[in-house]
């Protein structure tokens, strides 16, 4: 979990590429706002621009935070817990 | 086309009996020939009822062939062949035999047309799986196998009780849609649920699968849960409670997967997560949703098998290391395995062009069409989560992340062939669903088109921003560090709870026992003995004393007489005269009454 400047060049390139792709993705999603494009949406929120992006991001952050700060303190034990 | 196809389950089961007697190349050729021959017979199967016999007035059906059983048999035979290739370096005969026992029983479950046949194969499944854990021959695997057996025997007994009640109520053993309307049906439902790894009942899976052999887990990831999906599809299609059971399966295990260190256990949790999608599909119960479940069974077996195979290959090469804390930076040593792992990860995450994309989305669409908004949102959360914990975590911590310093060779050729075939299948299904799995889908539903621009955009955005979240959490130091640990799950109740129950029973029952001993054995019984021993002497002495008094026997002689009488009674010896006299009295009593 070190500072990103200590990471190898390839890793930083991959992260940069990810940022750019995410940006392009959101831009494309906003372009779909035009009424002429049918998204085949079955729920209203599927038409909100950036819905999937925000949902994916928030879902993963929540998943990690709940796992780390709620579940882990409750359930984590030493590796030999069951061997005693 | 053959006119009389042979039952595939017996080709695998009976054919498997010969495996222990073969060695080396001959065994490999034979073990590949069996699934090939089974598949050849599968191809000539046409819909209908085959191979029936009767048992106690019930018709046993070993071959109910319809579109539902055909798609399961298809993928079961294919994965058996793949697992044979992957395991071909293994020398242990029992492991190969157990794999075939397991696979053949699974096919038997699928083709069973009545509940009696179904139950027999269902129990054989458990035996085959338990052996695949046992053959690892470690203390932990021994414990895991025993727990596996206990849980499944309990589930099996509940199922058996349900089946007997059901047959008694309906008068028929036929395995058709059961529907939840009686005690019998609830018992059957619950029995299926144990094998399906429903929430709380699931811990046998995450407990035992990571303890199986490197190759055995490929079989395990395929058969038990998918046979249970088949059983639910037959018995309880459209049962609404399955929707919420499935949502629970799809969501809760992923939290465990995020903090789990053993990567095969991470995959076990994500297996439950994927099976959850299938259960939701059965619960919704429309043609589209059930097709989605069937399609997802097919693609899940392949991509989950691929992920287990790639982690297993790493385990095999590194001498048993499968924990995130022990691995890392292996891509340079094992690039082929790494690429296969990434393909499996992309497939389970449902990236466009990979198999999960064309199968999972059918269930999502069916949920949306049924206006199950919360279910849909929960499944979307699970979709983002599965990418997070299986799609990124597995390849990242094994092949990238920090350099663990491990330098090993690439996986052996047989493993690479097996992984390569499976990886190609995952991509082929993803790109050409209409030429691969869609024609096999069993239920009537409007054609599904996964590759709309909106769907590709939606799924790509979801996954891209999940990846972004992972990257930011990791570089920000928030992502939970991998820690050598165990996380307690519902198996705690019978692993720790078992010990506590032991202590509880030890304290209560043993102290009860001590009290009972003191009162009964030491107290009452010895008193009874004493009475039996001394009572007659006491009575006789009491009777004789007045006679001696009257007859004027002197006191010192009386004392002597009493002592000899006591001795005689306690030793059970009497002068013959007394015995004869008493016998006459007894005979007299018998004669007169």
Report what the structure shows.
The complex is a heterodimer of chains A (84) and B (593). Chain A has 84 residues and is mainly α. Chain A has one domain. Helices cover 57% and strands 2% of the residues of chain A. Chain A is flat, with a radius of gyration of 20 Å. The two termini of chain A are 33 Å apart. With 593 residues, chain B is mainly alpha-helical. Chain B folds into 3 domains: 236 residues, no CATH class; 247 residues, no CATH class; 73 residues, no CATH class. Chain B is 72% helix and 3% strand. Chain B has 20 helices and 3 strands. A two-stranded antiparallel ribbon of chain B has the order 1-2. The longest helix of chain B is centred in the last third of the chain and has 60 residues. The chains are: A mainly alpha (84), B mainly alpha (593). At the A-B interface, helix 1, helix 2 and strand 1 of A face helix 10, helix 14, helix 15, helix 17 and strand 3 of B.
Core attributes:
heterodimer, A: 84 residues, disordered N terminus, B: 593 residues, mainly alpha, two-stranded antiparallel ribbon, 3 strands, 3% strand
Distance between the termini of chain A: 33 Å
Task: Please give the domain count of chain A.
Answer: 1
Strand fraction of chain A equals under 5%
Structural class of the secondary structure composition of chain B?
A: mainly alpha
Number of strand elements of chain A: 1
Query: What average pLDDT do the residues of chain B reach?
Result: 90
Major β-sheet profile of chain B: 2 strands, antiparallel
User: Oligomerization state of this entry?
Assistant: heterodimer
User: What's the rounded overall pLDDT mean of chain A?
Assistant: 78
Q: Please tally the β strands of chain B and state the result.
A: 3
Q: Walk across the major sheet of chain B and give the strand order.
A: 1-2
Task: Summarize the amount of helix of chain A as a percent range.
Answer: 55-70%
Low-confidence stretches of chain A: 1-5
What general outline of chain A do the C-alpha atoms trace?
flat
Largest sheet of chain A: none
Count of helical stretches of chain B: 20
Summed up, the domain count of chain B is 3
């Amino acid at each position: 979990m070190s500072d990103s400047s200590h990471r190898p060049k390839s890793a930083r390139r991959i992260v940069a590429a990810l940022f750019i792709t995410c940006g392009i993705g959101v831009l494309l999603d906003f372009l779909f706002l035009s009424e002429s494009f049918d998204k085949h949406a079955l729920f209203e929120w599927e038409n909100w621009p950036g819905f999937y992006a925000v949902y994916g991001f928030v879902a993963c952050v929540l998943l990690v935070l709940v796992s780390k700060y709620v579940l882990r303190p409750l359930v984590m034990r030493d590796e030999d817990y069951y061997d005693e | 086309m053959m006119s009389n196809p042979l039952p595939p389950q017996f080709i695998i089961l009976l054919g498997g009996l010969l495996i222990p007697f073969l060695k080396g190349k001959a065994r490999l050729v034979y073990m590949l020939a069996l699934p090939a021959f089974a598949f050849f017979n599968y191809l000539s199967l046409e819909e209908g009822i085959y191979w029936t016999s009767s048992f106690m007035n019930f018709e046993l059906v070993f071959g109910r062939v319809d579109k539902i059983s055909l798609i399961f048999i298809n993928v079961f035979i294919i994965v058996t062949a793949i697992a044979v290739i992957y395991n071909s370096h293994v020398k242990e005969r029992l492991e190969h035999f157990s794999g075939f026992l397991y696979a053949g029983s699974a096919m038997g479950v699928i083709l069973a047309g009545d509940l009696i046949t179904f139950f027999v194969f269902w129990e054989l499944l458990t035996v085959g799986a338990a052996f695949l854990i046992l053959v690892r021959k470690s203390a932990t695997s021994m414990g895991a196998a025993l727990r596996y057996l206990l849980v499944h025997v309990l589930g099996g007994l509940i199922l058996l009780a349900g089946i007997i009640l059901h047959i008694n109520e309906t008068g028929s053993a036929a395995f058709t849609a059961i529907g939840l309307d009686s005690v019998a049906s609830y018992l059957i439902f619950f029995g299926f649920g144990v094998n399906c790894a429903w929430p709380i009942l699931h811990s046998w899976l995450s407990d035992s699968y990571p303890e199986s052999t490197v190759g055995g887990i490929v079989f395990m990831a395929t058969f038990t849960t998918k046979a249970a999906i088949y059983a639910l599809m037959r018995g309880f299609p459209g049962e609404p409670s399955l929707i919420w059971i499935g949502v629970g399966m799809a969501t809760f295990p992923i939290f465990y997967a995020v903090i789990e260190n053993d990567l095969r256990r991470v995959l076990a949790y994500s297996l439950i997560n994927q099976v959850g999608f299938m259960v939701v599909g059965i619960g919704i119960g429309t043609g589209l949703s059930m097709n989605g479940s069937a399609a997802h069974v097919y693609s899940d077996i392949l991509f989950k098998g691929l992920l287990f195979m790639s982690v297993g290959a790493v385990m095999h090469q590194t001498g048993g290391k499968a924990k995130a804390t022990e691995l890392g930076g292996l891509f340079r040593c094992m690039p082929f395995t790494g690429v296969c792992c990434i393909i499996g990860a992309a497939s389970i995450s449902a990236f466009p062009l990979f198999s999960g994309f064309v199968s999972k989305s059918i269930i999502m669409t069916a949920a949306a069409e049924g206006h199950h908004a919360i279910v849909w949102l929960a499944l979307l959360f699970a979709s983002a989560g599965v990418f997070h914990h299986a799609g990124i975590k597995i390849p990242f911590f094994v092949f990238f992340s920090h350099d663990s310093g491990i330098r090993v060779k690439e996986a052996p050729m047989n493993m690479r062939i097996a992984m390569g075939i499976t990886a190609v299948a995952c991509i082929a299904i993803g790109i050409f669903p209409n030429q691969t799995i869609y024609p096999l889908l069993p239920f009537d539903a409007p054609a599904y088109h996964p590759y709309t621009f909106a769907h590709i955009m939606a799924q790509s955005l979801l996954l891209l921003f999940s990846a972004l979240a992972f990257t930011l959490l990791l570089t920000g130091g928030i992502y939970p560090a991998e820690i050598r640990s165990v996380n307690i799950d519902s198996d705690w109740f019978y692993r720790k709870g078992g010990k506590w129950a032991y202590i509880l029973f030890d304290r209560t029952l043993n102290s009860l026992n001590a009290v009972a001993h003191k009162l009964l054995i030491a107290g009452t019984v010895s008193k009874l003995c004493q009475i039996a021993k001394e009572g007659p002497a006491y009575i006789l002495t009491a009777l004789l004393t007045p006679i001696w008094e009257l007859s004027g026997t002197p006191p010192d002689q009386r004392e002597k007489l009493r002592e000899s009488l006591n001795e005689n009674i306690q030793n059970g010896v009497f002068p013959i005269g007394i015995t004869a006299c008493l016998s006459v009295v007894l005979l007299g009593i018998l004669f007169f009454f």
